[in-house]
Amino acid sequence: MQADILAWAVPATFLLFGIAFAALGRFGPGLYAWSGCFSLAALAYGMTVIPAGEGAIVKPLFEDSLFLFALTGANLALASRAGRRPRYALLAGTIAASLFCAFLALFLSGSAQFEIFSIQAGCAVLMLLAAGTMAGLSKRWIDRALFWLCVLVAASLSLQNLAFLSSPLDQPMTVTNWRDSPWAFVFQLSGAVTGVLMAFSVLVAIGMDLIEHHRLSSDVDALTLVLNRRGFERRVAELRRAAHGSAPDALVLADLDFFKQINDRHGHEAGDAVICGFAALLERMVGNRGCVCRFGGEEFAVFLRACDLSEAQTLALRLQSALRAVRWPFDLAQLSVTASFGVVAVAAGERLWDAAGRADTLLYVAKSHGRDRVVGDAIASAPAIRPAARLLMG
C-alpha cells in the first residue's frame, strides 16, 4: 500500500516536533500550544494506521476529533503570537459542525467519502481562522509567511476536497477500505508536507524572536525600560533617515534636581522608583512624536522628530509642570520632584552627540540658575556657533 510508506513516519515526525516545541516552550509565545498541535496530529495519524472494523463510527470520529483539535491548537498558538484573543465560539462551532456532518455521513450511509470531506472542510475553515488571526501583522516577514502558509494549507485542503468529492470511485468508500485508496496517500503526504513546513516556519520564528529579544535587551535600559544610549542613537538614526531631513528636529535633555538628596533621605529603592516614574512620564507625554533615552543616573534625553525649537520648549514646559504635579506613593507622598531641561534644535546633518553637547550646556545653565527651569537655545539656526545667547524660561 502507498499509504504504508508514510504510515509511521508522519506520526513519528510530528511527535518529535511536539516534543521539541514543549522543550522550547519558555522561549516564545504559543509554543506549548504548538506542542499540543503536533502531538495531537501525531496521535491522529498514528490512529489511522490501525484498521477500523466494518461500519465503525467511534474510531473514525475519534481520529477526526484529533485532527480538528490539532488545528485548533495551531489557532491558539498563532493567537498567542499575535497577542489576540482566540475566537473560541468560531472554533467550537467549526469543530461541532464538522463532527456532526461526519457522524451523519457514517451513521446514515457508512460513507467515508463524505465523512472525510466534512473533516477536511472543517480543517480548511480552521486554517482560514488561523490566517485571520495573523492578518495585519505585516511588520515582520516571518509573520507574513505564517499568514500565507495558513492560507496555503486552507486552499490545499479545499482543492483536495473538491477533487476528492468529484473523483469517480470503483466502489463505495468505507472506513474499512479507505486506507487502500490512492487518496489516503495523497492526504497523508499533503498533511506531512504542510505540517513540516509549518513546523520549520515556527522554528524560524522562534529564532528571529530570540534575536530580536537580544537586540532589544541590548538597546533598553534595564531599570526604566526606555532606550539606553546605544538604542537611542540607533532609533534616532532611523527616525532621521525616514524623515529625509524634511522637517526640523529637536533634542531635550532633562536632569532630576537634587536627586542625591532623594537617595540619601529615602533610600536607593525610592530613588529608583522616582527614576522609573519620570521615565514613564516622559514616554507617556512624548508618545509617538519621538523617543526617550536614559543617559545614565538621573539624566534623560528626548528626541522629537519634525519638531521646531518652540514646540520642543513648550513640551519641556509641560513636562516640567507634569513632574511637579506628580503625587508619589507611600513614603514619598510628601516628596516634590523637579527637573531641569536643556532644549536645542537639531539641524539637518548635525551629529546627534554634537546637539547633545549643546543641550547639556543649556542644562548646566538651568542648573546654575536655580534648577526647575527650561533653557532653550536662542541660536537654533546656527548650531556650529557655541550657544552664547540663551532664552531662559522657568
Low-confidence stretches: 380-394
Radius of gyration: 31 Å
Instruction: Identify the overall geometry.
Output: elongated
User: Whole-number average pLDDT?
Assistant: 87
- Helix percent band: 55-70%
Largest sheet: 6 strands, mixed
Strand order of the largest sheet: 2-3-1-4-5-6
Distance between the termini: 86 Å
Note the beta-strand portion. 5-15%
Decide which structural class fits the backbone.
Answer: alpha+beta
What string gives the helices and strands in order? Answer: HHHHHHHHHEHHEEHEHEE
- Total helical segments: 13
Count of individual beta strands: 6
Brief characterization of the structure:
The chain contains 13 helices and six strands. The protein has 394 residues and is α+β, with helices and mostly antiparallel strands. A six-stranded mixed beta sheet has the order 2-3-1-4-5-6, sandwiched between helices.
Report on the architecture of this protein.
By secondary structure, the protein is of the alpha+beta class. Helix content is 63%, strand content 9%. It has helices at 3-6, 9-23, 31-49, 58-82, 88-109, 112-134, 141-166, 182-219, 229-243, 259-266, 268-286, 309-325, 352-368; strands at 249-256, 290-296, 299-304, 339-346, 374-377, 390-393. Strands 2-3-1-4-5-6 form a six-stranded mixed β-sheet, with helices on both faces. Helix 2 runs parallel beside helix 8 (182-219), helix 3 runs antiparallel to helix 4 (58-82) and helix 7 (141-166) runs antiparallel to helix 8. The protein is elongated, with a radius of gyration of 31 Å. Residues 380-394 have low confidence and may be disordered.
